């Protein structure tokens, strides 16, 4: 027979292991319900409490579909309430699915930005945004051999830089990782953690109930008072982009770190200042392409001149031969 002390010991061990496993995937910090989204989505009316939606977005009982699996669709979902805390984590349960195996697009984005509810060309939202974008790109315009799609990446912008679709955001990317999240039969999650000016992106796309690291980077400064949102777009290729739930947490602020809001700072990262220079550097190959075109054109014209002169000389020689014959 087990003694009471042994029973307490065994219970303590089980609780410790259960807590450890749960802590791997779920945060212990305070959930911000005004920035979260769970089923059932509808409130007393037809809308979703604390959230606005636009474009092709459709609200169902099991998911919020930003785009159907149809061409040329854009949809978005935006939180109505600005985030006033400096350190936060947001966990998004999402699904991207389609009927094709090899050709699909275009992708989705998570936003923490000054602007909201503005449909645009960057995965369903506006270009020259101010804030943070986490982009799930499923179609390659650049055919970059360094990474395979789908690809998850981050961009910070102060409103001065355009997202470069032709380069798949190469020169403004803070970091990224390949993430094969399409057509999964289980839940797929990403986590965006912003803490003490450090951005960390993690995922759980293999139903492990544990976060796998994607990338992290320091020196990212984001103001308070911006809005959370999600958007998606399709073009000539398509996918269905669904949001199932959003869980937002306020993180504890470390001792000695200011807790007050900072709404007046500009979004900042090392790539904002560097991006225009790199974009100018990319213009050099296009100039060499123009030069090659003109050089090729001159070569073709030169060949034509030689051919025409040769024909004229041949005709003249034939005419001289006929005169000698007569």
Structure overview:
The protein has 326 residues and is of the alpha+beta class. Helix content is 24%, strand content 29%. The protein is built from 2 helices and 15 strands. The strands form 2 sheets. Strands 1, 3, 4, 6, 11, 12, 13 and 15 form an 8-stranded antiparallel β-sheet that branches. A 7-stranded antiparallel β-sheet has the order 2-5-14-7-8-9-10, with no helix packed on it. The protein is elongated.
Q: Oligomeric status of the shown chains? A: single chain
What percentage of residues falls in helices of 4 or more residues?
Answer: 10-25%
- Average pLDDT score: 84
Taking all Cα atoms into account, the compactness measure Rg is 29 Å
Biggest sheet character? 8 strands, antiparallel
Keywords summarizing the entry:
alpha+beta, seven-stranded antiparallel sheet, 326 residues, 24% helix, 29% strand, elongated
């Amino acid at each position: 027979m087990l003694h009471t002390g042994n029973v307490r010991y065994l219970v303590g061990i089980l609780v410790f292991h259960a807590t450890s496993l749960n802590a791997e995937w779920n945060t212990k910090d305070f959930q911000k319900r005004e920035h979260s989204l769970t089923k059932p989505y509808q409130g007393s009316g037809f809308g979703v409490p604390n959230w606005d939606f636009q474009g092709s977005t459709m609200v169902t009982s099991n998911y919020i579909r930003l785009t159907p699996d149809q061409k040329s669709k854009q949809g978005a979902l935006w939180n109505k309430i600005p985030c006033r805390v400096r350190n936060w984590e947001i966990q998004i349960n999402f699904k991207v699915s389609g009927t094709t195996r090899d050709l699909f697009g275009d992708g989705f984005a998570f936003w923490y930005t000054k602007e909201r509810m503005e449909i645009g060309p960057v995965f369903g939202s506006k270009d020259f945004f101010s804030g943070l974008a986490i982009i799930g790109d499923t179609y390659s315009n650049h055919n970059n051999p360094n990474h395979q799609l789908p690809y998850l990446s981050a961009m910070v912008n102060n409103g001065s830089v355009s997202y470069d679709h032709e380069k798949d955001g190469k020169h403004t990317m803070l970091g990224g990782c390949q993430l094969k999240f399409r057509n999964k039969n289980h839940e797929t999650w990403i986590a965006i953690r912003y803490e003490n000016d450090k951005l960390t992106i993690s995922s759980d796309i293999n139903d492990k109930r544990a976060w796998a690291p994607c990338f992290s980077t320091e020196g990212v400064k984001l103001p308070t008072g911006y809005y959370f949102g999600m958007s998606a777009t399709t073009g000539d290729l398509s996918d269905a982009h669904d949001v199932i739930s959003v869980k937002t947490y306020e993180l504890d602020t470390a001792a000695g770190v200011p807790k007050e809001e900072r709404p007046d700072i500009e979004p900042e990262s090392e790539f904002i200042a560097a991006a225009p220079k790199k974009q100018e550097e990319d213009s050099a190959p296009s100039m060499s392409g123009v030069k090659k075109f003109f050089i090729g054109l001159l070569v073709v014209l030169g060949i034509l001149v030689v051919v025409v002169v040769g024909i004229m000389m041949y005709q003249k020689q034939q005419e001289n031969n006929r005169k000698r014959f007569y």
